[in-house]
Automatic annotation (TrEMBL):
<dbReference type="GO" id="GO:0046872">
    <property type="term" value="F:metal ion binding"/>
</dbReference>
<keyword id="KW-0067">ATP-binding</keyword>
<protein>
    <recommendedName>
        <fullName>ATP-grasp domain-containing protein</fullName>
    </recommendedName>
</protein>
<dbReference type="GO" id="GO:0005524">
    <property type="term" value="F:ATP binding"/>
</dbReference>
<dbReference type="InterPro" id="IPR053191">
    <property type="entry name" value="DcsG_Biosynth_Enzyme"/>
</dbReference>
<dbReference type="InterPro" id="IPR011761">
    <property type="entry name" value="ATP-grasp"/>
</dbReference>
<feature type="domain" description="ATP-grasp">
    <location>
        <begin position="93"/>
        <end position="288"/>
    </location>
</feature>
<keyword id="KW-0547">Nucleotide-binding</keyword>
Amino acid sequence: MTRTAYFASCAAMPEGDGDDAIVLPALADLGFTVHWAAWDDPAAGFAEADLVVLRATWDYPDRREEFLGWCESVPSLANPAPVVRWNTDKAYLVELHDTGVPTVPSELIEPGERAKWPKQPFVVKPSVGAGSHGVAKFAAGGLAADEHLRGLHEDGRTALVQPFQSSVDTQGEIAAVFLGGIYSHAFTKAVMFGSGPDASGLYLEERLAAAVPAPEVRAVAEDALDAACSLLGILRAELLYARVDLIRGDDGRPLILEMELTEPTLGFRYADAGAPLRFASAVRQQLA
């Protein structure tokens, strides 16, 4: 039986960054016809599709409410709209931390609120954002940090403040990828501070490479995914994909930096040959 799937993207990157191309033959083998379309394209057949998969909707931060409204209008969306609403605001990091999952400490500063800057180097980023836009590192509080915060607030954005973890400069991040709730593969992401934008202007360039997470890193990623699903009231299998980004804290322990459940690059170019097959099976599972 032939089934139709749409990979939802955006006008600036209509077929994503190329990472998903490798999964198309695996989906075709299972009887899926896949179409790419920008999420805001009125001519796309999202309503008639067997499944719509969020893949490269990277222009949503400036139109989040419009994007969430569209998500809620799609009959069969992966990941589901309630997950997208929760995950597209980094306030979820505070919730994860409160469950006891080792997470980089995060403080939210709403528009109109003043900051009490950490006494160590720190990072300020918009709580709603993608591709590291609006992310800045500061050695200490002062005029530069105040101006950056003011700029975010003037745009109506809540700021997220996190202590800078020095391992970002030396080890980068490790991204653990789960498909259908099951661990699939991992890859490393090089530090992005000071990087230039890609051709689309939607995200900053980064260097990726295949990786095998240490046991304690994998364990924290698994615990974080369990905690997120508990907060959302869903089973892990209800998530077509999840990417858990971790770094080492200054004491060497793994910490959650972000959890990507909406439209992450999944690093198929850096995974083993079985990863596209696992993704295709996870897509099929969503329709079971």
